[in-house]
């Protein structure tokens, strides 16, 4: 026995929702990454992403179906980032508004390259030594703080930050090399 | 030629500090100057922060590559070596409020984020849920995996998850030495380091002496190794055939009884689980009170710490799978709620009272009262307001919640009806064979949602199961009394739920029989030992 409301409004909302899912499921990762570019910390990015996701859904009716979804959605996200910056501006360190705007423009222009870099990252991750994967998993996957990781693996916090920097550098250079090889 | 990293080394060093949240004001100013200096500098910067951003959402990218700790390797300043974990504390890099946000994000995204996962989850159904891997794919002969665009590479490390072979054969080796060979059309879920669930098809096991006790759960029986090689086959009807090639196995009948059942009738010490051997810690804010049924129950005062913490169940020798379930689930409780349900009307964005929650992120299981902005889409959609919610992650559908609006319409109770001082029976079920989620109040189905038959549950992780609270303690504690908590790894049928309700309405436990009798029966379930060359066929128990 289903007790779902059967009126037309709910049905239409469901159709809209299914369509929204189609778009959003293809884009949400890119949107989260986009937010991270400006706020860097996962907890901040999640807060913004949460708000932005809801606004995307609420404003989905205004999205022109003949336009690409991602740039529209990034615009919504960038507005949320600005709003967040106004709200939390004093608590955190931010780039100036001018530079953020410039980076937002640059990011849009660089979208294709960033997609290629993502694909290369997947390959480069597989080549990482286990110990490097482990620190990435602890920091990004298990979402532990550097302090917690330091306690867990009995190293200094400084060592953890150095290791993270080293692993990211290694991946950055691996991605550069792969793309350079593909281009040549 | 100098690498681009070297060219922008200082800029990227500062970007790294920015990503880690350790950059100072002067350094940020310096970074801004460097980034603004030229388009190549901005591109180098963007590529770096994008790498950081991708890593933050790259569970699938890391999938199968989780390193196993090598305890012998020493830590040092020069290089970071993995050492044995010294703490099992849950991550706390997030504040409670942002964690709550994360839950909402995860719910929204993962309820609708199926497309991304299906493109990026070549290894198993989802990222391994156990922090450590328990097995490895060691051979794959012309194998095609079901519903997966990618392939699992030989050597991939496997955590908790489901493997589905379409064609060919695959061999996995557990860390304890157990080898499992999967045949065509086999579906097998790794549920722990010592147990798998054969959902369909054939699997052969070769279990070394050090892994005696390894279990293959099937719809009809638990097949427990006693040092042997054997094959198991599960047919379409759930019928299980076991053949011993060498050594000995024991088949134990599967009963339609709870995996865990806490009556709260023991009057001191931890709350006793009568079937699975768990011990529920009753934590400050929760206290024993006279039972809604039987001698005892637990009252929760809505304070942050009030809970009965069941652990994650993986240490239980009788049910090594913990709260992981694949083909079905039932969460059942008797409650007398005092939830205000005020929710948004008091300015709060969320108002939750948890009856039961295993907070494994997107793989969480929950049964709770909720009043929120419906930022987490419910399936099917419902009007805003107080509701009873059942959250579960289904393969290919993500995490979503089934909710009963407590609005008094169409025969549904209002919150006031549930707060009439009487005990109320609440049950949440999902049956993968039918592909249907159901929520019941007082023996009657009040809401249901269907997906395609055969859709499996994805559950499991590191989180502890908690009655009356969210383990993260974010002001979601229950207010009122909970009694007769039961967790099953199959779905009770509507007829069974109705019978359970009749039983509690007449003042007995769900089964209408003395608990001692049930416990004794559960311990004396049908067993059969098979030795070399013998086989047996068992049928799945029916409601």
Automatic annotation (TrEMBL), chain A:
<dbReference type="InterPro" id="IPR007627">
    <property type="entry name" value="RNA_pol_sigma70_r2"/>
</dbReference>
<feature type="domain" description="RNA polymerase sigma-70 region 2">
    <location>
        <begin position="26"/>
        <end position="90"/>
    </location>
</feature>
<keyword id="KW-0805">Transcription regulation</keyword>
<feature type="domain" description="RNA polymerase sigma factor 70 region 4 type 2">
    <location>
        <begin position="120"/>
        <end position="171"/>
    </location>
</feature>
<protein>
    <submittedName>
        <fullName>RNA polymerase sigma factor</fullName>
    </submittedName>
</protein>
<dbReference type="InterPro" id="IPR013325">
    <property type="entry name" value="RNA_pol_sigma_r2"/>
</dbReference>
<dbReference type="InterPro" id="IPR014284">
    <property type="entry name" value="RNA_pol_sigma-70_dom"/>
</dbReference>
<dbReference type="GO" id="GO:0006352">
    <property type="term" value="P:DNA-templated transcription initiation"/>
</dbReference>
<dbReference type="InterPro" id="IPR014331">
    <property type="entry name" value="RNA_pol_sigma70_ECF_RHOBA"/>
</dbReference>
<comment type="similarity">
    <text>Belongs to the sigma-70 factor family. ECF subfamily.</text>
</comment>
<keyword id="KW-0804">Transcription</keyword>
<dbReference type="Pfam" id="PF04542">
    <property type="entry name" value="Sigma70_r2"/>
</dbReference>
<dbReference type="Pfam" id="PF08281">
    <property type="entry name" value="Sigma70_r4_2"/>
</dbReference>
<dbReference type="GO" id="GO:0016987">
    <property type="term" value="F:sigma factor activity"/>
</dbReference>
<dbReference type="InterPro" id="IPR039425">
    <property type="entry name" value="RNA_pol_sigma-70-like"/>
</dbReference>
<dbReference type="InterPro" id="IPR013324">
    <property type="entry name" value="RNA_pol_sigma_r3/r4-like"/>
</dbReference>
<dbReference type="InterPro" id="IPR036388">
    <property type="entry name" value="WH-like_DNA-bd_sf"/>
</dbReference>
<dbReference type="InterPro" id="IPR013249">
    <property type="entry name" value="RNA_pol_sigma70_r4_t2"/>
</dbReference>
<keyword id="KW-0731">Sigma factor</keyword>
<dbReference type="GO" id="GO:0003677">
    <property type="term" value="F:DNA binding"/>
</dbReference>
From TrEMBL, chain B:
<protein>
    <submittedName>
        <fullName>FecR protein</fullName>
    </submittedName>
</protein>
<feature type="domain" description="LamG-like jellyroll fold">
    <location>
        <begin position="327"/>
        <end position="495"/>
    </location>
</feature>
<dbReference type="InterPro" id="IPR006558">
    <property type="entry name" value="LamG-like"/>
</dbReference>
<feature type="region of interest" description="Disordered">
    <location>
        <begin position="73"/>
        <end position="92"/>
    </location>
</feature>
<dbReference type="InterPro" id="IPR012373">
    <property type="entry name" value="Ferrdict_sens_TM"/>
</dbReference>
<dbReference type="Pfam" id="PF04773">
    <property type="entry name" value="FecR"/>
</dbReference>
<keyword id="KW-0472">Membrane</keyword>
<keyword id="KW-0812">Transmembrane</keyword>
<dbReference type="Pfam" id="PF13385">
    <property type="entry name" value="Laminin_G_3"/>
</dbReference>
<feature type="transmembrane region" description="Helical">
    <location>
        <begin position="99"/>
        <end position="119"/>
    </location>
</feature>
<keyword id="KW-1015">Disulfide bond</keyword>
<keyword id="KW-0732">Signal</keyword>
<keyword id="KW-1133">Transmembrane helix</keyword>
<dbReference type="InterPro" id="IPR013320">
    <property type="entry name" value="ConA-like_dom_sf"/>
</dbReference>
<dbReference type="InterPro" id="IPR006860">
    <property type="entry name" value="FecR"/>
</dbReference>
<dbReference type="GO" id="GO:0016989">
    <property type="term" value="F:sigma factor antagonist activity"/>
</dbReference>
């Amino acid at each position: 026995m289903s007790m779902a409301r059967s009126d037309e409004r709910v049905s239409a909302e469901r159709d809209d929702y299914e369509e929204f899912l189609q778009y959003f499921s293809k884009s949400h990762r890119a949107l989260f990454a986009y937010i991270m570019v400006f706020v860097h910390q996962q907890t901040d990015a999640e807060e913004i992403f949460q708000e932005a996701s809801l606004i995307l859904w609420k404003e989905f009716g205004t999205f022109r179906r003949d336009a690409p979804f991602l740039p529209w959605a990034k615009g919504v996200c960038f507005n949320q980032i600005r709003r967040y910056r106004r709200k939390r501006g004093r608590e955190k360190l931010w780039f100036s508004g001018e530079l953020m705007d410039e980076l937002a423009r640059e990011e849009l222009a660089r979208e294709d390259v960033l997609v290629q870099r993502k694909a290369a990252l997947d390959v480069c991750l597989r080549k990482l030594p286990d110990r490097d994967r482990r620190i990435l998993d602890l920091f990004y996957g298990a979402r532990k703080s550097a302090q917690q990781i330091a306690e867990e693996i009995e190293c200094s916090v400084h060592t953890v930050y150095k290791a993270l920097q080293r692993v990211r550098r290694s991946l950055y250079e691996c991605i550069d090399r792969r793309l350079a090889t593909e281009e040549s | 030629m100098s690498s681009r990293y070297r060219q922008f080394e200082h800029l990227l060093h500062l970007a790294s500090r920015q990503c880690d949240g350790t950059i100072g004001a002067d350094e940020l100013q310096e970074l801004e100057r460097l980034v603004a200096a030229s388009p190549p500098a901005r591109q180098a910067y963007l590529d770096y922060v994008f790498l950081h951003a991708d890593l933050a959402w790259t569970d699938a990218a890391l999938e199968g590559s989780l390193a196993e700790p090598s305890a012998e390797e020493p830590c040092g300043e020069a290089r970071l070596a993995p050492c044995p974990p010294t703490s099992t504390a849950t991550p706390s890099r997030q504040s409670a409020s942002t964690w709550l946000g994360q839950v909402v994000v995860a719910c929204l995204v993962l309820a609708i984020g199926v497309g991304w996962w299906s493109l990026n989850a070549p290894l198993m159904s989802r990222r391994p849920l156990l922090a450590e891997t328990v097995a490895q794919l060691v051979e794959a002969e012309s194998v095609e995996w079901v519903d997966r665009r990618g392939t699992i590479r030989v050597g991939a490390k496997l955590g908790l998850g489901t493997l589905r072979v379409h064609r060919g054969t695959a061999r996995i080796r557990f860390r304890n030495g157990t080898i499992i060979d999967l045949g065509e059309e086999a579906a097998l879920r790794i549920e722990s380091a010592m147990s798998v669930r054969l959902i369909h098809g054939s699997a052969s096991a070769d279990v070394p002496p050090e892994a005696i006790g390894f279990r293959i759960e099937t719809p009809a029986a638990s097949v427990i190794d006693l040092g042997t090689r054997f094959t198991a086959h599960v047919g379409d009807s759930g019928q299980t055939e076991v053949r011993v090639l060498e050594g000995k196995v024991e088949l134990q009948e599967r009963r339609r009884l709870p995996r865990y059942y806490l009556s709260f009738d023991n009057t001191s010490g931890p709350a006793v689980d009568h079937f699975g051997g768990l011990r529920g810690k009753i934590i400050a804010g929760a206290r024993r009170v006279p039972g809604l049924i039987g001698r005892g129950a637990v009252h929760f005062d809505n304070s942050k710490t009030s809970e009965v913490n069941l652990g994650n169940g993986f240490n239980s020798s009788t049910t090594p799978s913990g709260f992981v379930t694949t083909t079905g689930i039932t969460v059942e409780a008797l409650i007398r709620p005092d939830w205000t349900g005020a929710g948004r009307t008091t300015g709060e964005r969320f108002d939750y009272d948890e009856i039961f929650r295993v907070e494994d992120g997107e793989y969480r299981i929950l049964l709770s009262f909720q009043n929120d902005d419906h930022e987490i889409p419910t399936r099917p959609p419902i009007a805003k307001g107080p509701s009873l919610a059942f959250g579960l992650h289904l393969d290919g559908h993500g995490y979503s919640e089934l909710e009963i609006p407590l609005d008094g319409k169409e025969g549904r109770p209002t919150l006031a009806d549930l707060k009439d001082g009487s005990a109320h029976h609440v049950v949440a079920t999902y049956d993968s064979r039918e592909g249907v989620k159901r929520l019941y109040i007082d023996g009657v189905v009040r809401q249901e949602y269907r997906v395609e038959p055969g859709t499996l549950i994805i559950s499991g992780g590191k989180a502890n199961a908690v009655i009356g609270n969210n383990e993260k303690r974010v002001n979601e504690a229950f207010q009122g009394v909970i009694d007769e908590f039961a967790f099953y790894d199959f779905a009770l049928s509507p007829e069974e739920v109705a019978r359970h309700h009749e039983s509690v309405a007449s003042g007995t436990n769900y089964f209408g029989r003395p608990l001692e009798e049930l416990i004794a029966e559960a311990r004396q379930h049908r067993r059969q030992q098979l030795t070399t060359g013998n086989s047996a066929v068992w049928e799945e128990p029916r409601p």
